[in-house]
Each structure stands twice: as structure tokens, then as C-alpha cells.
Amino acid sequence: MLEEQAIVVQIDSGAVWVETCRQSACQSCSAKSSCGHSLLSKMSSGQTQRLQVKTDKVLSIGDQVVLGLSERAFIRGSALIYMLPLVAMMIGAVVGEQLSGHDSMMSFTLAGLGLLAGFGFVRWYSWQHRQDAEYQPVVLRKLPFTGDIPLVNQ
């Protein structure tokens, strides 16, 4: 289970709205000076993300909680988002080359169409499965109050 800390900022019936602060493991990585992910992490540091999480736990505004998401859902979602459009692009390029007899323009065009089709499928799949419980974070536990001021902007 992947875990992330969050702060409850609003309470609805059967759900809470929480904010998480984007974090990165880049500070301890030896390749951070030459990594694009590290640059993106620096650009978004301090930004929060707000999301609704269904729960039956009794929580109050300001409570610090630990959210969880299954590794299976994370890996499946990551593979879908990153790999599917690339595989569709490669298939489009190969089909274009086979159909045109090594015409690079046809291969390039079908590769682009394959990439767009892959992105379109990812968008459609995400829309169709947006309410699936497998892809939704859950409140694992409430953290004890430490008296510290939360780091997330409210």
C-alpha cells in the first residue's frame, strides 16, 4: 500500500476533502542534478493537491490522516498512462512502414495517429473508471495530534 499524509480541509457526508503537499524522493537521489523529474519537483514544491476521499471514519477539519492506494492500482495506472500511448505509436509506425514500403512520411503520420489514439484511449478509460474503488485513495488512519502547525495551506 502506497501511503501519503494529508490534512482534512472539508467534511461532506460519507467523505472528506483533503489536501496533500507534493513531495519527492529527489533530495536523497544521487542523480538529482541531471534528472528531469527533479526539476519538475522543484518547480511544484509547496503546491497542494485537493481531493475527495470517501470514508466512514469520524474526522474533523484539521486532522492529519494517512491516505493509501494499492500498489496494483498505481502500477496499472502508470503502465496505462505511460506505456499504452508509446506502444500504440510504435505499432502505428510499423504499420505505416509495412503499408507504404519504407515511406517515412506515412510511417511518421501513422505513428502520430497511434500516439493520439493511445492518449484518447487513456482519457476514455480514465473517464469510464473514475469511480472504481480500486483507483480511489482510502483513509488508512488518523495521525495523533502533535501540536505542530500543518505544512499544507488551508
Written overview of the protein:
With 154 residues, the protein is of the alpha+beta class. It has one domain. It is built from three helices and five strands. The chain has a five-stranded antiparallel beta sheet. Helix 2 runs antiparallel to helix 3. The model has no long low-confidence stretch (mean pLDDT 81).
Offer a few descriptive terms.
alpha+beta, 154 residues
As residue ranges, the low-confidence spans are: none
Strands in their spatial order, largest beta sheet: 3-2-1-4-5
Specify the structural class.
Answer: alpha+beta
Question: Into which percent range does the helicity of residues fall?
Answer: 40-55%
Give the SSE order as H and E letters.
Answer: EEHEEHHE
Percent of residues in beta strands: 15-25%
Task: Quickly count the domains.
Answer: 1
Helical segment tally? Answer: 3
Q: Tally the beta strands.
A: 5
- The N- and C-terminal alpha carbons lie at a distance of 27 Å
Please outline the major beta sheet.
Answer: 5 strands, antiparallel
Chain-averaged pLDDT:
81
C-alpha Rg, in Å?
A: 21 Å
